[in-house]
Amino acid sequence: MSGKLHVSNLGKSYRHWGSELRRFASWFFPSISPQKEHWVLKGISFSISPGEAVGIIGQNGAGKSTLLKIITGTTQPTVGEVQLTGRVAAILELGMGFNPDLTGRENAFHSAGLMGYSRIEIEKAMPEIETFAEVGKYFDEPVRTYSSGMQMRVAFSVATAFLPDLLIIDEALSVGDSYFQHKSFDRIRQFRDRGVSIMFVTHGMDDVRTLCDRVILLEGGRALKDGPPDEVVDFYNALIAEKENTKLTVEQRREKNGWLLTRSGSGEARVKSLQLLDANTGTDVAVAQVGQRVLLKLQATIHADIDRLVLGYMIRDKQGHVIWGTNTWHTSQVEQDIKAGEIVTFELPFTCTLGPGSYSVSPALVSSDTHLTDNYEWVDNLLVFDVINASKEYFIGSNYLDAQFNISRKIEESTE
Ligand SMILES: Nc1ncnc2c1ncn2[C@@H]1O[C@H](COP(=O)(O)OP(=O)(O)OP(=O)(O)O)[C@@H](O)[C@H]1O
After folding, report:
1. Considering only CA atoms, which residue is closest to atom 30 of ligand 1?
2. Which of the chain's ends, N or C, has fewer CB atoms near its CB within 10 Å?
3. Which residues line the pocket of ligand 1, CB cutoff 6 A?
4. What protein family is recorded (predicted)?
5. What is the pLDDT of residue 1?
Protein backbone atom coordinates (compact mmCIF):
# COMPACT_ATOMS: atom_id res chain seq x y z
CA MET A 1 0.00 0.00 0.00
CA SER A 2 1.18 3.56 -0.53
CA GLY A 3 0.42 6.66 1.50
CA LYS A 4 -2.13 9.00 0.03
CA LEU A 5 -3.68 11.98 1.73
CA HIS A 6 -6.52 14.15 0.60
CA VAL A 7 -7.71 17.06 2.68
CA SER A 8 -10.74 19.03 1.57
CA ASN A 9 -12.07 22.31 2.86
CA LEU A 10 -10.75 21.66 6.34
CA GLY A 11 -11.64 24.09 9.10
CA LYS A 12 -11.25 24.20 12.86
CA SER A 13 -12.82 26.69 15.18
CA TYR A 14 -12.55 27.09 18.92
CA ARG A 15 -15.58 28.50 20.66
CA HIS A 16 -15.52 30.82 23.62
CA TRP A 17 -18.73 30.68 25.60
CA GLY A 18 -18.00 33.34 28.16
CA SER A 19 -19.22 31.11 31.00
CA GLU A 20 -19.76 27.43 31.78
CA LEU A 21 -23.46 28.15 32.36
CA ARG A 22 -23.82 29.52 28.86
CA ARG A 23 -22.04 26.50 27.37
CA PHE A 24 -24.21 24.13 29.44
CA ALA A 25 -27.41 25.96 28.44
CA SER A 26 -26.47 25.66 24.76
CA TRP A 27 -26.91 21.85 24.98
CA PHE A 28 -30.61 22.36 25.65
CA PHE A 29 -31.20 25.60 23.76
CA PRO A 30 -29.45 25.48 20.41
CA SER A 31 -30.36 29.13 19.84
CA ILE A 32 -27.75 30.06 22.48
CA SER A 33 -24.58 30.66 20.50
CA PRO A 34 -21.00 31.06 21.67
CA GLN A 35 -19.84 34.58 22.45
CA LYS A 36 -16.88 34.26 20.17
CA GLU A 37 -15.77 31.80 17.54
CA HIS A 38 -12.11 31.69 16.57
CA TRP A 39 -11.24 29.92 13.31
CA VAL A 40 -7.67 28.66 13.61
CA LEU A 41 -7.88 26.84 10.25
CA LYS A 42 -10.13 27.65 7.36
CA GLY A 43 -10.65 26.35 3.81
CA ILE A 44 -7.61 24.08 3.71
CA SER A 45 -7.54 21.73 0.71
CA PHE A 46 -4.60 19.78 -0.69
CA SER A 47 -3.45 16.29 -1.61
CA ILE A 48 -0.22 14.41 -1.07
CA SER A 49 0.68 11.74 -3.61
CA PRO A 50 2.60 8.58 -2.77
CA GLY A 51 6.27 9.36 -2.26
CA GLU A 52 5.80 13.12 -2.05
CA ALA A 53 7.55 15.10 0.72
CA VAL A 54 5.59 18.16 1.79
CA GLY A 55 6.78 20.81 4.23
CA ILE A 56 4.42 22.98 6.26
CA ILE A 57 5.79 26.37 7.21
CA GLY A 58 4.34 29.47 8.84
CA GLN A 59 4.73 31.79 11.77
CA ASN A 60 3.86 30.86 15.37
CA GLY A 61 0.15 30.29 15.72
CA ALA A 62 -0.44 29.90 11.98
CA GLY A 63 -2.20 26.58 12.52
CA LYS A 64 0.52 24.08 11.55
CA SER A 65 0.24 21.81 14.58
CA THR A 66 -3.54 21.94 14.49
CA LEU A 67 -3.47 20.77 10.87
CA LEU A 68 -1.22 17.80 11.68
CA LYS A 69 -3.33 16.91 14.72
CA ILE A 70 -6.45 16.80 12.57
CA ILE A 71 -4.73 14.66 9.95
CA THR A 72 -3.54 12.18 12.58
CA GLY A 73 -6.97 12.11 14.23
CA THR A 74 -5.80 13.65 17.52
CA THR A 75 -8.24 16.54 17.02
CA GLN A 76 -11.51 16.60 15.12
CA PRO A 77 -12.09 19.21 12.40
CA THR A 78 -15.09 21.54 12.73
CA VAL A 79 -15.72 21.25 8.99
CA GLY A 80 -14.14 19.39 6.10
CA GLU A 81 -12.75 15.98 5.50
CA VAL A 82 -9.50 14.03 5.67
CA GLN A 83 -9.05 10.93 3.52
CA LEU A 84 -6.00 8.89 4.35
CA THR A 85 -4.82 5.56 3.02
CA GLY A 86 -1.85 3.59 4.26
CA ARG A 87 -0.03 3.17 7.52
CA VAL A 88 0.80 6.42 9.29
CA ALA A 89 3.71 7.07 11.64
CA ALA A 90 3.51 10.37 13.47
CA ILE A 91 5.68 12.30 15.88
CA LEU A 92 3.59 15.14 17.20
CA GLU A 93 4.17 17.24 20.29
CA LEU A 94 6.94 15.91 22.45
CA GLY A 95 5.92 13.59 25.18
CA MET A 96 2.47 13.18 23.74
CA GLY A 97 1.50 9.57 24.20
CA PHE A 98 4.46 8.78 26.48
CA ASN A 99 3.68 7.73 30.05
CA PRO A 100 6.29 9.42 32.27
CA ASP A 101 6.27 6.57 34.78
CA LEU A 102 7.06 3.90 32.22
CA THR A 103 10.55 3.29 30.88
CA GLY A 104 11.62 4.18 27.36
CA ARG A 105 11.42 0.51 26.41
CA GLU A 106 7.90 0.13 27.85
CA ASN A 107 6.73 3.31 26.15
CA ALA A 108 8.27 2.17 22.88
CA PHE A 109 6.36 -1.08 23.21
CA HIS A 110 3.13 0.73 23.96
CA SER A 111 3.52 3.26 21.09
CA ALA A 112 4.32 0.57 18.53
CA GLY A 113 1.28 -1.38 19.78
CA LEU A 114 -0.91 1.68 19.21
CA MET A 115 0.49 1.89 15.70
CA GLY A 116 -0.98 -1.54 15.10
CA TYR A 117 2.07 -3.80 15.32
CA SER A 118 1.95 -7.21 17.01
CA ARG A 119 3.99 -8.26 20.07
CA ILE A 120 6.25 -10.41 17.91
CA GLU A 121 6.85 -7.64 15.39
CA ILE A 122 7.68 -5.18 18.19
CA GLU A 123 10.00 -7.60 19.98
CA LYS A 124 11.86 -8.11 16.72
CA ALA A 125 12.20 -4.37 16.15
CA MET A 126 13.13 -3.46 19.75
CA PRO A 127 16.94 -3.91 19.48
CA GLU A 128 16.96 -1.64 16.45
CA ILE A 129 14.79 0.95 18.27
CA GLU A 130 17.18 0.88 21.24
CA THR A 131 20.28 1.12 19.06
CA PHE A 132 18.96 3.98 16.95
CA ALA A 133 17.79 6.02 19.97
CA GLU A 134 21.24 5.88 21.60
CA VAL A 135 20.03 6.82 25.08
CA GLY A 136 22.14 4.15 26.78
CA LYS A 137 20.98 2.86 30.13
CA TYR A 138 18.18 5.45 30.18
CA PHE A 139 16.22 3.19 27.85
CA ASP A 140 15.26 1.21 30.96
CA GLU A 141 14.65 4.25 33.18
CA PRO A 142 11.30 6.08 33.56
CA VAL A 143 10.71 8.67 30.86
CA ARG A 144 10.22 11.39 33.49
CA THR A 145 14.00 11.30 34.02
CA TYR A 146 14.64 12.06 30.32
CA SER A 147 15.68 15.35 28.79
CA SER A 148 13.43 16.58 25.96
CA GLY A 149 16.09 15.55 23.43
CA MET A 150 16.15 12.01 24.85
CA GLN A 151 12.35 11.75 24.66
CA MET A 152 12.52 12.82 21.06
CA ARG A 153 15.21 10.23 20.29
CA VAL A 154 13.00 7.43 21.57
CA ALA A 155 9.84 8.86 19.94
CA PHE A 156 11.59 9.18 16.57
CA SER A 157 13.16 5.72 16.79
CA VAL A 158 9.80 4.05 17.47
CA ALA A 159 7.87 6.02 14.89
CA THR A 160 10.40 5.14 12.20
CA ALA A 161 11.21 1.58 13.23
CA PHE A 162 8.67 0.24 10.77
CA LEU A 163 8.39 1.48 7.22
CA PRO A 164 5.21 3.61 7.16
CA ASP A 165 3.29 4.81 4.11
CA LEU A 166 3.03 8.33 5.48
CA LEU A 167 5.42 9.88 7.99
CA ILE A 168 4.20 12.97 9.85
CA ILE A 169 6.61 15.02 11.97
CA ASP A 170 5.74 18.13 13.90
CA GLU A 171 8.86 20.13 14.62
CA ALA A 172 9.92 17.53 17.17
CA LEU A 173 13.28 17.15 15.50
CA SER A 174 14.28 20.69 16.39
CA VAL A 175 14.84 19.71 20.03
CA GLY A 176 17.39 17.07 19.09
CA ASP A 177 21.10 17.84 19.09
CA SER A 178 22.78 18.27 15.75
CA TYR A 179 24.16 14.72 15.76
CA PHE A 180 20.69 13.20 16.14
CA GLN A 181 19.09 15.70 13.77
CA HIS A 182 21.57 14.67 11.12
CA LYS A 183 20.89 11.01 11.77
CA SER A 184 17.12 11.45 11.68
CA PHE A 185 17.19 13.50 8.48
CA ASP A 186 19.22 10.75 6.93
CA ARG A 187 16.54 8.24 7.86
CA ILE A 188 13.81 10.53 6.55
CA ARG A 189 15.69 10.86 3.27
CA GLN A 190 15.97 7.07 3.01
CA PHE A 191 12.23 6.79 3.63
CA ARG A 192 11.55 9.30 0.90
CA ASP A 193 13.76 7.38 -1.51
CA ARG A 194 11.75 4.25 -0.69
CA GLY A 195 8.48 5.96 -1.61
CA VAL A 196 7.19 6.97 1.82
CA SER A 197 5.05 10.12 1.74
CA ILE A 198 6.30 12.72 4.20
CA MET A 199 4.68 15.70 5.79
CA PHE A 200 6.60 17.79 8.25
CA VAL A 201 6.44 21.08 10.06
CA THR A 202 9.65 22.99 10.41
CA HIS A 203 11.10 26.43 10.97
CA GLY A 204 14.32 25.32 9.23
CA MET A 205 14.17 26.72 5.73
CA ASP A 206 17.23 24.75 4.63
CA ASP A 207 15.51 21.48 5.61
CA VAL A 208 12.53 22.49 3.51
CA ARG A 209 14.66 23.23 0.48
CA THR A 210 16.63 19.99 0.66
CA LEU A 211 13.92 17.58 1.70
CA CYS A 212 10.64 18.74 0.23
CA ASP A 213 9.07 18.43 -3.19
CA ARG A 214 6.43 20.92 -2.18
CA VAL A 215 5.78 23.43 0.58
CA ILE A 216 2.54 24.78 2.02
CA LEU A 217 2.66 28.16 3.74
CA LEU A 218 0.03 28.68 6.43
CA GLU A 219 -0.79 32.21 7.51
CA GLY A 220 -3.60 32.98 9.93
CA GLY A 221 -5.12 29.52 9.46
CA ARG A 222 -5.23 29.71 5.66
CA ALA A 223 -3.01 28.13 3.04
CA LEU A 224 -1.45 31.23 1.55
CA LYS A 225 0.84 29.35 -0.86
CA ASP A 226 1.31 25.79 -2.03
CA GLY A 227 4.13 25.22 -4.47
CA PRO A 228 7.81 24.47 -5.12
CA PRO A 229 10.13 25.05 -2.12
CA ASP A 230 12.01 28.03 -3.58
CA GLU A 231 8.79 29.83 -4.45
CA VAL A 232 7.15 29.34 -1.07
CA VAL A 233 10.26 29.87 1.08
CA ASP A 234 11.28 33.08 -0.72
CA PHE A 235 7.71 34.33 -0.49
CA TYR A 236 7.63 33.53 3.23
CA ASN A 237 10.88 35.39 3.77
CA ALA A 238 9.42 38.47 2.06
CA LEU A 239 6.18 38.06 3.99
CA ILE A 240 7.95 38.21 7.35
CA ALA A 241 9.63 41.47 6.37
CA GLU A 242 6.38 42.96 5.14
CA LYS A 243 4.46 42.02 8.26
CA GLU A 244 4.44 45.57 9.57
CA ASN A 245 3.17 46.95 6.28
CA THR A 246 -0.52 47.05 5.65
CA LYS A 247 -0.08 46.30 1.97
CA LEU A 248 1.74 43.20 0.93
CA THR A 249 3.99 43.83 -2.03
CA VAL A 250 5.60 40.55 -2.98
CA GLU A 251 6.08 39.86 -6.66
CA GLN A 252 7.19 36.48 -7.98
CA ARG A 253 8.20 35.52 -11.49
CA ARG A 254 9.71 32.27 -12.76
CA GLU A 255 12.47 33.19 -15.25
CA LYS A 256 13.20 31.21 -18.41
CA ASN A 257 16.37 29.81 -16.82
CA GLY A 258 14.26 28.19 -14.07
CA TRP A 259 15.27 30.57 -11.27
CA LEU A 260 12.48 32.26 -9.39
CA LEU A 261 12.67 36.02 -8.97
CA THR A 262 10.99 37.30 -5.79
CA ARG A 263 10.87 41.04 -5.22
CA SER A 264 9.57 42.70 -2.06
CA GLY A 265 10.04 45.94 -0.18
CA SER A 266 8.76 49.34 0.78
CA GLY A 267 10.58 51.12 -2.07
CA GLU A 268 12.52 53.96 -0.38
CA ALA A 269 15.61 52.50 -2.09
CA ARG A 270 15.49 50.32 -5.18
CA VAL A 271 17.95 48.30 -7.23
CA LYS A 272 18.49 50.17 -10.52
CA SER A 273 21.01 47.69 -11.91
CA LEU A 274 23.10 44.74 -10.85
CA GLN A 275 25.97 43.45 -12.98
CA LEU A 276 28.73 40.89 -12.73
CA LEU A 277 31.78 42.33 -14.47
CA ASP A 278 35.33 41.27 -15.17
CA ALA A 279 37.34 43.21 -12.58
CA ASN A 280 40.11 44.03 -15.05
CA THR A 281 38.23 44.84 -18.26
CA GLY A 282 34.86 45.98 -16.86
CA THR A 283 32.96 43.82 -19.37
CA ASP A 284 29.84 41.84 -18.47
CA VAL A 285 30.42 38.26 -17.31
CA ALA A 286 27.73 35.64 -17.93
CA VAL A 287 30.10 32.71 -17.47
CA ALA A 288 32.85 33.18 -14.90
CA GLN A 289 35.93 31.01 -14.70
CA VAL A 290 37.18 29.50 -11.49
CA GLY A 291 39.90 31.89 -10.28
CA GLN A 292 38.73 34.88 -12.36
CA ARG A 293 38.77 38.33 -10.72
CA VAL A 294 35.21 39.61 -10.98
CA LEU A 295 33.18 42.50 -9.61
CA LEU A 296 29.56 42.82 -8.51
CA LYS A 297 28.31 46.31 -9.27
CA LEU A 298 24.97 47.49 -7.95
CA GLN A 299 23.37 50.86 -8.42
CA ALA A 300 20.59 51.86 -6.05
CA THR A 301 18.15 54.70 -6.66
CA ILE A 302 16.88 56.52 -3.60
CA HIS A 303 13.20 57.48 -3.65
CA ALA A 304 12.83 58.97 -0.15
CA ASP A 305 15.23 60.41 2.43
CA ILE A 306 16.58 57.60 4.59
CA ASP A 307 18.87 57.62 7.62
CA ARG A 308 20.82 54.48 6.85
CA LEU A 309 21.41 52.26 3.85
CA VAL A 310 22.89 48.79 3.96
CA LEU A 311 23.46 46.47 1.01
CA GLY A 312 23.42 42.73 1.61
CA TYR A 313 24.26 39.96 -0.83
CA MET A 314 23.47 36.28 -0.86
CA ILE A 315 24.97 33.92 -3.42
CA ARG A 316 23.04 30.68 -3.80
CA ASP A 317 23.63 27.46 -5.68
CA LYS A 318 21.00 25.82 -7.87
CA GLN A 319 19.54 23.93 -4.89
CA GLY A 320 18.97 27.23 -3.09
CA HIS A 321 21.72 26.75 -0.51
CA VAL A 322 23.45 29.93 0.51
CA ILE A 323 27.10 29.66 -0.55
CA TRP A 324 28.11 33.04 0.74
CA GLY A 325 26.46 36.14 2.14
CA THR A 326 27.24 39.32 4.02
CA ASN A 327 26.22 42.95 4.16
CA THR A 328 27.72 46.39 4.63
CA TRP A 329 26.49 46.42 8.23
CA HIS A 330 28.87 43.61 9.07
CA THR A 331 31.70 45.31 7.18
CA SER A 332 31.00 48.62 9.01
CA GLN A 333 30.20 50.46 5.77
CA VAL A 334 26.71 51.78 6.50
CA GLU A 335 25.80 54.80 4.35
CA GLN A 336 24.17 57.58 6.40
CA ASP A 337 21.68 60.38 5.56
CA ILE A 338 20.88 59.55 1.98
CA LYS A 339 18.57 61.93 0.16
CA ALA A 340 15.84 61.21 -2.38
CA GLY A 341 17.20 61.48 -5.91
CA GLU A 342 20.67 60.15 -5.07
CA ILE A 343 22.17 57.15 -6.81
CA VAL A 344 24.42 55.00 -4.64
CA THR A 345 26.90 52.68 -6.35
CA PHE A 346 28.33 49.63 -4.58
CA GLU A 347 31.22 47.66 -6.03
CA LEU A 348 32.38 44.35 -4.66
CA PRO A 349 35.47 42.88 -6.33
CA PHE A 350 36.34 39.27 -5.50
CA THR A 351 38.07 36.22 -6.87
CA CYS A 352 35.59 33.67 -8.12
CA THR A 353 36.43 30.64 -5.99
CA LEU A 354 33.10 28.94 -6.67
CA GLY A 355 32.99 25.47 -8.16
CA PRO A 356 31.53 24.80 -11.61
CA GLY A 357 27.74 25.26 -11.65
CA SER A 358 24.98 27.79 -11.79
CA TYR A 359 24.64 30.48 -9.10
CA SER A 360 22.37 33.38 -8.30
CA VAL A 361 22.90 36.69 -6.54
CA SER A 362 20.18 38.11 -4.28
CA PRO A 363 20.70 41.73 -3.20
CA ALA A 364 18.86 43.37 -0.31
CA LEU A 365 18.68 47.09 0.43
CA VAL A 366 17.94 47.43 4.12
CA SER A 367 18.78 49.66 7.08
CA SER A 368 20.52 47.29 9.51
CA ASP A 369 21.87 43.76 9.83
CA THR A 370 18.47 42.23 9.11
CA HIS A 371 15.69 42.92 6.65
CA LEU A 372 13.14 42.70 9.44
CA THR A 373 13.55 46.36 10.50
CA ASP A 374 13.32 48.03 7.08
CA ASN A 375 13.16 46.14 3.85
CA TYR A 376 13.55 48.81 1.15
CA GLU A 377 14.00 46.23 -1.56
CA TRP A 378 14.97 42.57 -1.56
CA VAL A 379 15.25 40.67 -4.82
CA ASP A 380 15.87 36.95 -4.71
CA ASN A 381 17.87 35.56 -7.63
CA LEU A 382 18.13 38.86 -9.50
CA LEU A 383 21.36 37.94 -11.27
CA VAL A 384 22.23 34.47 -12.45
CA PHE A 385 25.65 33.36 -13.68
CA ASP A 386 27.51 30.15 -14.45
CA VAL A 387 30.97 29.11 -13.36
CA ILE A 388 33.18 26.84 -15.42
CA ASN A 389 36.59 25.41 -14.70
CA ALA A 390 38.83 26.09 -17.65
CA SER A 391 42.24 26.54 -16.06
CA LYS A 392 42.40 24.71 -12.72
CA GLU A 393 42.95 21.02 -12.11
CA TYR A 394 39.76 18.94 -11.85
CA PHE A 395 37.78 19.19 -8.61
CA ILE A 396 34.21 18.75 -7.46
CA GLY A 397 32.06 20.79 -5.07
CA SER A 398 30.94 24.38 -4.83
CA ASN A 399 34.21 25.72 -3.51
CA TYR A 400 37.67 26.04 -5.04
CA LEU A 401 40.25 25.58 -2.30
CA ASP A 402 43.74 26.57 -3.20
CA ALA A 403 44.94 23.20 -1.94
CA GLN A 404 47.90 21.11 -3.11
CA PHE A 405 48.98 17.63 -2.23
CA ASN A 406 52.42 17.11 -0.69
CA ILE A 407 53.50 13.50 -1.12
CA SER A 408 56.65 11.87 0.18
CA ARG A 409 57.94 8.30 0.13
CA LYS A 410 60.54 6.40 2.08
CA ILE A 411 61.49 2.85 2.82
CA GLU A 412 60.25 1.64 6.18
CA GLU A 413 63.20 1.26 8.51
CA SER A 414 63.83 -2.22 9.81
CA THR A 415 63.22 -2.60 13.58
CA GLU A 416 65.53 -5.63 13.94
N1 LIG B 1 -7.26 24.11 22.52
C2 LIG B 1 -7.25 25.31 21.96
N3 LIG B 1 -8.17 26.23 22.29
C4 LIG B 1 -8.16 27.47 21.73
N5 LIG B 1 -7.29 27.86 20.80
C6 LIG B 1 -6.35 26.99 20.42
C7 LIG B 1 -6.27 25.66 20.97
N8 LIG B 1 -5.22 25.01 20.38
C9 LIG B 1 -4.67 25.90 19.52
N10 LIG B 1 -5.33 27.07 19.53
C11 LIG B 1 -5.05 28.26 18.71
O12 LIG B 1 -4.94 27.86 17.35
C13 LIG B 1 -4.00 28.66 16.65
C14 LIG B 1 -3.06 27.74 15.87
O15 LIG B 1 -2.24 27.02 16.78
P16 LIG B 1 -1.16 25.94 16.29
O17 LIG B 1 -0.54 25.34 17.51
O18 LIG B 1 -1.79 25.03 15.31
O19 LIG B 1 -0.12 26.89 15.55
P20 LIG B 1 1.33 26.54 14.97
O21 LIG B 1 1.36 27.09 13.58
O22 LIG B 1 1.64 25.11 15.14
O23 LIG B 1 2.26 27.44 15.90
P24 LIG B 1 3.78 27.17 16.45
O25 LIG B 1 4.73 27.46 15.32
O26 LIG B 1 3.88 28.23 17.52
O27 LIG B 1 3.86 25.79 16.99
C28 LIG B 1 -3.33 29.54 17.69
O29 LIG B 1 -3.89 30.83 17.62
C30 LIG B 1 -3.68 28.86 19.00
O31 LIG B 1 -3.79 29.82 20.03
Report:
1. 61
2. C
3. 14, 40, 58, 60-66
4. Belongs to the ABC transporter superfamily.
5. 54
Question: Sheet holding 79-85: strands in order across?
Answer: 36-48, 4-16, 79-85
Find the domain containing 185 and state its range.
4-233
- The minimum-distance atom of ligand 1 relative to the CA of 63 is 18
Range scoring the smallest mean pLDDT among 168-172, 281-285, 328-332: 168-172
Q: Look up the pTM and report it.
A: 0.76
Residues 208 and 252 in one domain: no
Is residue 27 pLDDT above 80, yes or no? no
Residue nearest to atom 8 of ligand 1 (CA): 66
Q: How confident is the model at residue 416 (pLDDT cuts 50, 70, 90)?
A: low
The SS3 of residue 286 is coil
Would you say residue 182 has pLDDT above 90? Answer: no
Does residue 248 surpass a pLDDT of 80? no
The residue contributing the CA closest to ligand 1 atom 17 is 65
Cα 57 to ligand 1 centroid, rounded to whole Å: 14
Q: Where are the beta strands (DSSP E) in 149-204?
A: 166-170, 197-201
Using an 8 Å Cβ cutoff, are 146 and 99 in contact? no
Cα 62 to ligand 1 centre (Å): 7
Is residue 29 in some structural domain? yes
Name residue 141's beta-bridge partners.
Answer: none
Ligand 1: distance of its center to the CA of 218 in Å? 12
Q: 180, 210, 233 — which closes off a domain?
A: 233
Query: What are the φ and ψ backbone dihedral angles of 251, each rounded to 5 degrees?
Result: -120, 135
168 and 71 in contact (C-beta within 8 Å)? yes
Convert 161-192 to b/e letters by CB count within 10 Å (16 or more is b). Answer: bbebbbbbbbbbbebbeeebbebbbeebeebb
Distance (Å) from CA 4 to ligand 1 centroid: 26
Q: For residues 195-204, give the mean pLDDT.
A: 88
ipTM field? 0.93
Nearest partner of 196 among 242, 221, 165, 218, judged by Cα: 165
